[in-house]
Design brief:
Oligomer: single chain
Low-confidence stretches: none
Number of strands: 10
Order of helices and strands: EHEHHEHEEHEHEHEHEEHHH
Radius of gyration: 20 Å
Amino acid sequence: HVECADRIALGYLGRVGVGLGRRQRIPATAIFQTNYVEYLHDYKNDVPWAKVPGIVPIMRVFTTWVYNGYDVTMVTTPHMQEKLSRWGIRNLRLDQFIGVDEQTFHPVERPKDAPLTLTYIGRFTADKQTEILMQALAIVDKEVPGCRFVLVGDGMDREKMEAWAKNYPGTVMPGRIPYADLPPYYQNSDIFVTASTREVRPLTVQEAMACGVPVVAPAAGGILDQVQDGVNGLLVAPYDAQALAEALLRLIRDPDLRHRLGRGGRAGIGAIGTWEYAARAMLRIWEEIAEKKKDK
C-alpha cells in the first residue's frame, strides 16, 4: 500500500486504513512531498482556523503521528529529512524519489531575436510568496523595460496577479497548463524564478534545470538541496524582493553567466535525477519491507 499521506484529509483518514492493513500484514509506505503544516503560516489571512493559537505545533504532532504509522516515510532532500526527524518521525528513508523526464524536458535552440523571458510555473497562492515575486518583477521591469514575464498556473491569488499584470504589458498568464504542454514554457525561458520558501523538492526547479534554464530562488527549504549558488542558479535571502530582483538583473545583464548556470543545471540532473532512478529507489524499499513482512 502506497500513499502520499499529506493529501488524504491531511493523512488522518489514511492512518485508519494503514492500521487495518497492518492487521492483514500489508506493508504501507508514504512519501512526504508537501509541507502543509508550515503552509499555515502563510494562510492566516485566508483560512480562519489558521489563526487559532498553537495550531501549527498541534498539526505538527498529528502529522508526526500519521507518518509514524507507516513502515517507511520517503523523503527527497536532506533538509526535509533533518526537519522531520526533529518533529519525531522515526521511519524516514532519504533518496531521489522525485525525478524528471530528460527526454521531454531538454534544452532547445531559441531564436536570437526572442525576448528575454523570465518564467514562473506553480500555484498562485500565499505559500508561493506571490507578493514577493510581483514586487521583484516590478523592480526588474523598472530597471530593464521590455522583459517578458511568463506566469503559468492558477490559484487563490490569480485575480490579484492579473490586476498586477495589467501594468506590465509584456506579461503572459496562460493559466493552468496540461502537464504535457509544459516543456515549451521552460524551453523558451531565459531564467526560471520562484519566491517560494517552503518547498520540499520542487519539481518545477528540476524541470527548469533539465531544460538548461538557470534558477533564481530563495535560500530556503528543499531548494537548498537543489540549487547550488553560482553552479546552476543563484540563491537569495528569503522574503526579500530587492535581493530576488538583483539576482534576476545580474543574470539579465550577464548572458555568459546565464548560459553557464543553465548548462550546470542540465549537467547536474544526471542519472539519479530521472524518473527511472526514482522508480527503482521506491521499488527497492517496497521489496525490502515486503520481504520483512513475509518473514514475520
